[in-house]
Design a protein that fits this description.
The complex is a heterodimer of chains A (645) and B (117). Chain A has 645 residues and is α/β, with parallel strands linked by helices. Chain A contains 24 helices and 18 strands. Chain B has a domain of 79 residues: Orthogonal Bundle (Cytochrome Bc1 Complex, Chain D, domain 2). Chain B contains six helices and no strands. The chains are: A alpha/beta (645), B mainly alpha (117).
């Protein structure tokens, strides 16, 4: 029986094939043409005839040797991603399949990471970049997936971290097969996050996709580094590469831009001011990104014997260096800011929340000169206010700090006479004494409440240090809410030992960012440690499963203070201001009754765990066991019931 | 009774009698509860050990009068607790609690910290 017009008519009626029917000449790949021609073959045997009781229509084509997504995958692979993180979604199923089945290197470079939430995908990429210095790709629906991802994108944006975001979307409405696909489609997918991404595009052809994909990577990686968005049309992914494109599609070459260095004359001027200063001080924001950046920071500070005030956004300076934190902004006559997003705040104080009204004060003394090397001046957007208050500076250099430092060091060296050198050495001695005093002060403070239960944050930090000090470790969490204890007690030296925090304080960052950072640390055999706030983990705890599933070695130590503690303190402030109900601030801010059992939670996700631990004596053995697990290459979580801060 | 005792001590203080670090009036047990109920622990820690958001106050580095004075009109970021929401008597109990907190061991007797020197 020949495939007849009936089949064709049925096919036309079929909703699923509506789109194909509208194509006058269906574009068929080689294999497909053979299949279509089979319709004119001699009469079939009985078995074949049986199969044809509900014959496929003549134009129905079931396979292709080359979907558009194969070419997209080729482009993506050319960019050198190690990983792509995604919660699966139909609008990018074509690309998903092409990546995991890529000829010659299936599911390799990039390897697909299974995520339980798009916020986790992005935050993992965020943490990963801060260790590896390379972006990770994430995939999401252009609609619901991006909505989930958006807070994490904003964090990365505010933290100047490139995340490569690929969105699926069905642009042509005639291809949307159902209500699901209509609700998952959007005119301008990237518009939702355009205020906090650096660049986006929705390519209309495969070659367009290729060029935009490479361009997006380049833009993301040029300081100030930021997330970028690329929309991959679903039809373009799933349909065969058009005949006319075969043979002419090409993957463009990626060539990253040299990061912007400061203007030579301005750098010389800065050097003059710094060398002439009696009390120069360096404020480090997102100053160092790489081992070289950290080395330059040390070199400059030592050369000038200038103390470094660290805003704790990156691993900017060794924490036990005599120049770390040993200076005072109020004493400075010249301040050098290095990519400091909150420079104004470093130099001013404001009336705290506990008091009515607002008064601001300058901390610097009159006449203090300020130099700021700031890549943020090269790129700004209006709507989201992450740019902070306008800082008045005397010399503003729109450039990347890390890139500018070597020239600044050389310019300073040229100007330093023997006399200046003697003066610098003299002031250096004082800073060394101050650093020693600060250290003693921290140790004394750590002793208070050392045996308390819940366990003090200083005690947890000291116990951790005792077990990590002989290892190659990397702290992959922010420690602001831990009273900064690790930064006050541990010996931070290497660029991967500290990575700063959220960027935009969007809670929910920590758990996934630490998993991403630990993944980057894995191939170097480092022990990644995450001090995990309880409130943060509860946003998207499924990332614990991702860590277990992908065997990502990471020690998570819960900072389980059973509250959204910052908010608890704020509401306490408000109650005191209003002179009422000071015992009611816990309503809506605490996470008790029932207490959450994080060890059981981690176990449910397939992770080794122990706790809750409230007695400080139980901590050391629990840590020891957990570190063994991590050394075996797996994640582990210890639930520690802690003091609030 | 508690209040009377407190006033007595307070007046002794005001008339210039040197403050002696004898056990203050007030119930340490009740003070411990109030320290949590009224939110002091949030910034100072459960044993007043101090955090990045609150000074070290356990054991208290100041006398009862100074503590009350401070709580009523704090100089820095601490919220003021007026008499309307926290009585002198309650603060006296809180003070008693802070007095009951053991002093820390010397660094040399805490090996984990001693090795950090």
């Amino acid at each position: 029986m020949k495939r007849t017009g009936t089949g064709r008519r049925n096919f036309l009626k079929g909703a699923a094939a509506g789109a194909a029917a509208l194509v006058a000449e269906p574009k068929l790949a080689k294999g497909q043409q053979q299949q279509a021609q089979r319709g004119t073959a001699p009469l079939p045997n009985a078995a074949q005839a049986a199969r044809e009781t509900s014959p496929p229509p003549q134009a129905a084509v079931y396979t292709t040797d080359r979907p558009g997504s194969d070419f997209m995958a080729e482009v993506i692979k050319s960019l050198g991603f190690e990983y792509v993180a995604a919660n699966p979604g139909s609008s990018f199923r074509g690309l998903h399949e092409s990546l995991i089945n890529f000829k010659g290197s299936p599911n390799q470079s990039p390897e697909l990471l299974t995520c339980c939430h798009e916020e986790s995908s992005v935050a993992m990429a965020h943490g990963y970049f801060k260790i590896e210095g390379k972006p990770m790709m994430i995939m999401a629906h252009g609609t619901v997936g991006l909505q989930h991802a958006s807070m994490a994108i904003y964090n990365a944006y505010a933290d100047r971290v490139p995340v490569y975001i690929l969105l699926g979307n069905i642009a042509d409405e005639t291809w949307r097969r159902s209500d699901v696909e209509w609700t998952h489609s959007v005119q301008d997918a990237a518009s939702m996050v355009r205020d906090f991404t650096k660049w986006d595009d929705s390519p209309a052809s495969l070659q367009h996709f290729a060029e935009s994909a490479v361009r997006a990577y380049k833009i993301a990686m040029t300081p100030p580094m930021e997330p970028v968005v690329l929309v991959a049309d679903a039809v373009m992914q799933e349909e065969p590469v058009p005949q006319e494109d075969r043979g002419r599609l090409r993957v463009p070459k990626l060539n990253l831009s040299q990061p912007p260095a400061g203007d030579a004359a301005a750098v010389e001027e800065a050097a003059k001011m710094l060398v002439a200063a009696d009390h120069p001080l360096i404020i480090a924001g997102r100053a160092a990104r790489t081992p070289a950046g950290l080395q330059s920071m040390i070199e400059l500070a030592e050369l000038l014997q200038a103390p470094v005030q660290d805003r704790r956004f990156r691993m900017n300076f060794p924490t036990r260096h005599p120049l770390y934190g040993s200076g005072n902004i109020a004493d400075a006559d010249v301040i050098l800011g290095l990519d400091v997003p909150d420079l104004w705040y470093a130099m001013h104080s404001m009336t705290p929340v506990n008091k009515i009204g607002m008064e601001t004060r300058t901390i610097t003394k009159p006449g203090t000169k300020v130099i700021h090397i700031f890549a943020g001046d090269l790129f700004a957007k209006s709507n989201y206010q992450d740019f902070g208050r306008y800082a008045e500076v005397d010399l503003s250099i729109a450039a990347d700090s890390e890139t500018t430092l070597p020239a600044l060091i050389e310019a300073c060296k040229k100007l330093i006479t023997a006399d200046r050198k003697r003066a610098f050495d003299e002031r250096g001695k004082k800073f060394a004494e101050t650093a020693e005093r600060n250290r003693q002060r921290d140790l004394d403070a750590a002793a208070f409440g050392f045996d308390a239960s819940p366990i003090s944050t200083a005690r947890v930090s000291a116990e951790l240090w005792n077990q990590l000090k002989g290892e190659d470790w990397s702290l992959v969490s922010d420690v602001t809410f831990f009273s900064y204890w690790p930064l006050r007690l541990w010996d931070f030296k290497k660029h991967y030992q500290y990575i700063g925090g959220h960027g935009a304080y969007g809670v929910g960052y920590q758990a996934p960012a630490s998993v991403g950072a630990a993944l980057a640390n894995r191939k170097y055999g480092r022990i990644s440690v995450n001090i995990q706030c309880d409130g943060d983990l509860n946003y998207a705890p499924g990332v614990l499963w991702t860590a277990a599933h992908h065997k990502i070695p990471l020690l998570t130590v819960m900072h389980n203070n059973r509250a959204y503690h910052q908010e608890l303190m704020y509401v306490q402030d408000m109650a005191s201001r209003a002179e009422r109900g000071i015992d009611r601030a816990k309503i809506g801010t605490t996470i008790t009754d029932p207490n959450i059992d994080y060890a059981t939670m981690a176990k449910a996700y397939g992770m080794y765990s122990s706790g809750p631990i409230s007695d400080p004596k139980d901590l050391a053995p629990a840590l020891k066991t957990a570190i063994q697990v991590v050394k075996r290459g797996e994640p582990a979580l210890i639930d520690v019931v802690t003091q609030p801060r | 009774m508690k209040i009377a005792l407190f006033l007595l001590t307070a007046s002794a203080f005001l008339t210039g009698v040197a403050w002696t670090q004898t056990a203050p009036a007030g119930s340490a047990d009740n003070g411990k509860k109030l320290f949590v109920k009224d939110g002091c622990y949030e910034c100072h820690g459960y044993v007043g050990q101090g955090t990045k958001d609150g000074a070290r106050i356990g054991p208290p580095p100041l006398n009862l009068e100074a503590l009350i004075r401070y709580v009523r009109r704090p100089a820095g970021a601490m919220p003021a607790f007026t008499e309307k929401v926290l009585s002198d008597a309650d603060l006296t109990d809180i003070y008693a609690y802070l007095r009951s907190v053991p002093a820390p061991k010397a660094i040399k007797d805490i090996p984990l910290l001693d090795e950090l020197k």
